[in-house]
Amino acid sequence: MRRVILAAMLTALMPAFAYAQYSDGAAKGPATVRTEKEMKNDAEIDKAYQQTLKRLKSEAPAAAAKTDPWQSVRPINSGDKAKQ
């Protein structure tokens, strides 16, 4: 009998535990209050990041020279033998 009562109590409490994770029926993250100073700091960081991206794109060479990372591993005449 004790097991039946315990199972009934746990079954009745399950929705209460699940409901406690939500407020007003919708999932929400932790409440955060950001000050104006923090928001301005974030905007400055974002602006600096965007400027850096633009600068890097403009400084990047138009066509980078292609390199062969395996050139020291291949034999010198490997092209002739591979085509046969």
Strand and helix layout:
Blueprint: H1 2-19, H2 36-59, H3 78-83
Structure explained in plain terms:
The structure is a single chain. The protein is elongated and about 85 Å long. The protein is mainly α and 84 residues long. It is 57% helix and 0% strand. It contains three helices and no strands. The longest helix has 24 residues, at 36-59. It has a domain at 33-59.
Quick check: average pLDDT? 79
Strand content: under 5%
Tell me about the largest β-sheet: none
Number of strands: 0
Order of helices and strands: HHH
* Structural class label: mainly alpha
Number of helices: 3
**Unreliably modeled segments:** none
Radius of gyration, CA atoms, in whole angstroms: 32 Å
Q: Any idea what the shape is?
A: elongated
Summarize the model shown.
This protein has 84 residues and is mainly alpha-helical.
